[in-house]
Design a protein that fits this description.
This protein is an alpha+beta fold. The chain has a single domain, classed as Heat Shock Protein 90, CATH 3.30.565.10. Helix content is 30%, strand content 29%.
């Protein structure tokens, strides 16, 4: 059962509050702060690291709310990132800032998967009873 589907396209910006409100409208209050943090991190990464905050480039987000959870696909127009960028670095080169966003994504979402040379990010958050 599909509850709601939405596709948005907006310029690369860090002013994300209205976008987040639309993309999180179906998430229940008890999960909202955590999921909002994760989704905000993903959108900031797309704007900042993917599109270099270039306002002529857009971020496209497709959202589906279903009976078993929520699904987002975030796409930027950047050059993509290296194959190993979805793994947290280990050892002395790791720092809170360099791995913070990726760490948050992997803690918040049940599925974090990059596609198309890492320009498209799939995020899934399942309902607790659907896991």
């Amino acid at each position: 059962m599909r509850l709601r589907q939405l596709t948005l396209s907006f310029p690369s910006t860090l002013y994300l509050s209205p976008v987040l409100d639309l993309l999180l409208a179906d998430v229940p209050p008890e999960l909202l702060p955590l999921v909002r943090l994760g989704l905000q991190e993903a959108l900031v990464n797309a704007a900042k690291h993917g599109n270099n905050l270039d306002p002529s480039k857009t971020i496209r987000v497709h959202y589906e709310g279903r009976a078993d959870g929520w699904y987002w696909v975030i796409e930027d127009q950047g050059p993509g990132c290296p194959r190993d960028c979805d793994c947290l670095p280990e050892g002395p080169e790791w720092s809170w800032e360099s791995g913070r966003g990726l760490y948050i994504l992997h803690q918040v979402f049940d599925r974090v998967e990059w596609c198309d040379q890492r320009q498209r990010l799939h995020l899934t958050k399942r309902l607790p009873e659907a896991r």
